[in-house]
Structure formats: structure tokens, C-alpha cells
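Write out the 3D structure for:
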Amino acid sequence: MEENKFLVIYGPTAVGKTSLGIKLAREFSGEIISADSRQIYREMDIGTGKDLPPGAVFHQEFVYKKGVAGWYSFSGVKVWLLDVVSPGERFSAFEWAVLAEKVTRKILQEKKRVFLLGGSAFYLKAFLEGIDYQQKPDWKLREKLSRLSLRELQDKLKNIWPERWQQLNYADRHNPRRLIRALEIAQGGIRKREKKERNFLGIRLVASLSFLRKQIKKRVEERLKKGLLKEIEALLKKYSWESPGLNSLAYKEFKPFFQGEATLEEACQRWFLDEVHYAKRQLLWFRNHPCFVSVSREDDDWELVIHKKVKKWYYEKNGR
């Protein structure tokens, strides 16, 4: 078994990444590292869609600063980096990549293959390529910048770092988080990233917007039935709406409802639309990346196509 050969499964929300990853990991003797910026939070299970097996037990392996690293067993497959930090803690792609590196070494020591699975593209990019202009997050500066409007952030970046502004694509130019990160780097001192050389095959699951809308609507309804509102009520007894965890999809949309400023139907509709918008942004990532193969989730033989590609890549020299 080759060391440092990674399989990456990426795609928009509700496209079917988890079930596919479990099947492949079981067949090819792998362990999964979750790359999901919402599922890293403890106590947030329903809204983030962790879908933990009944009676699942968290096996803690080691502590990392403000978080912990451990795994759950999904049908006999270890899935790492769920439940890393509390909803009151901030957690960046930089911190996730450092932790994923530690977990990777442990998986390889056990002579298992490493699977990275998730829809948080920036997490994956941080691990596979290194973070642009490697730099730890400046939370105070981020909080200050978060008070600015989108236009103010854009103008500020154009003035401070015009070269970086030109490098950003349309989606990033209209993404406050990306703009804040660029401004943070510009004001904190630019340092070139440590380039990563990863040997990996990326499976990029794609689907039409109509397909995703149906899947997302179904998922929204299922999570409400599972008790999302009760989960939010429990969280609010310990954390505030300003907590990083509660300021994420599937939670922040219900703030007006809990404060009596919107109906449940309005909150659910906002959540649905935000999830659809997020899926649109996810579809923009890795489209032209040479190591990613795009497979349509709507094709009848999509799983068979992926299985053949993965098998060829693992067992045939230079297979792709």
C-alpha cells in the first residue's frame, strides 16, 4: 500500500458524499477525515447533518489546543474530526489542516488509506496545497472587519492589496469571509505559503441545481422532524447567537424566529435558500483542477464509474 496517497471526495451539500465515502473506505481499507466546517462543532448534530449511527461512541485520541481529535465508527469505518471544538470556539482552516496532518500520520501508521471527505473546499485546499500566505488567524481583526459591508471590504482590499483583488474570482469577490481573510493577510504581513506536494485523486460530485434543490428541501424537512428546534433551544442555554457555531448554516436562520421577528415558515425558507446558495458556491470549486475528476450524481451508473476510477488509481501504476 502506497503511503501518502490520498483519495478526496468533494461536492455540494446533499449530493451523497458520506454514503459514497463509507462504501469506498470499507472496500479499499481506508479511514475518513471529515472536512466539514460545521461538523467540527460538538453538540450540533442535527443541523449539521452528522447522521451519527445509533449509540455511536466518540473515541478521543488526542487533545489539540482548544479541541480534541477522535473518531466515530460508521459501519466499521473510522470517521475522524467530527466534534472537534465547542460551538463557542472559533476554528479556522489553518487549524483544521494542522489537525488533519496529525490524524493522517496516525492513519498511515495503522497501514490504512486516508480518505478526505467533505464540502468545505477551503479546508481541503489548506490540506492539499497549503494555505495561501501561511498565517495564523487574527480573530480581533476579523471581528473588526466583519462589521464592514461587502462594498467596504471590496474597496478596502482594492486599495490595500490590488494584486490579490485581481487574483480573486467572482465568487470570492462577493464572499465576505474570503475578503476578510485577504485583508487579514495583507495587514498582518505577507508570507508565501509552504507548498504541499500531495499525491491524490479527487472525486468531484456534481449535480444540476434542480436536483440539489430537491435534495436540500428533503434534508431540511428531515432535520426539522429529527428535532432541530430542540437542539437549538439546548444550545442557546449555553451559548449565544454570536457564538461561532450558532452563526452557521441551519442555525443562524432561526435567530429571527426565536426572537419573535419571523415565523417558522419564514425561517425554514431562509434556511433552504441559504443552503441552495451555499451549494452553488461549492460547485465553483476545483472545476478545472487537474487532480479532480467530475462525476454527475444524476447518472445511473455514477457509483460504478467512481469505483472503477478509484480501483484503477490505487492498483494500476499512474492510474487516473
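The chain is about 45% helix and 15% strand.
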